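During the reporting period the student researcher (J.K.) took over the structure-prediction task from the postdoctoral fellow and processed the backlog of single-chain submissions. One of the processed entries is reproduced below for the supervisory committee.
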Amino acid sequence: MSTMYKNEGGIRALYRGIIPTVAGVAPYVGLNFMTYESVRKYLTPDGDKNPSAARRLAAGAISGAVAQTCTYPFDVLRRRFQINTMSGMGYQYKSIWDAITMIVSQEGFRGLYKGIVPNLLKVAPSMASSWLSFELTRDFFVSLDPHD
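J.K. obtained the following structure tokens:
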């Protein structure tokens, strides 16, 4: 870290990419929750209170994939800014708008989604297991309530 601090721009180098990261977190989380609840409801058979574990896993995977796909350009921007000052690492972006403009003009709209397939292969199972774990843990604690 001290080398990065000395050679790559001081304290600012330690926070490169923070703006697109912060800008992408709220939409990602919101989309993830909204999509999970919608898909979970859709996958719950009529008359049942909760879907099966497999259906919960599917809802989690779908919600993670949808949220990640919608907010993935923020991840691309974050990564680009993190390598922005490294010598020989491509274009030196001046601002977020400059980065978006350059990526789209040089690589097309698809440039904002470079690397999404491996990312989805990571996010879908991760979110599936996270949502299932959350639901099973919640259900366990709710079952401990003596008033129920």
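The committee noted the following: The chain is about 70% helix and 0% strand.
J.K. will present the remaining backlog at the next meeting.
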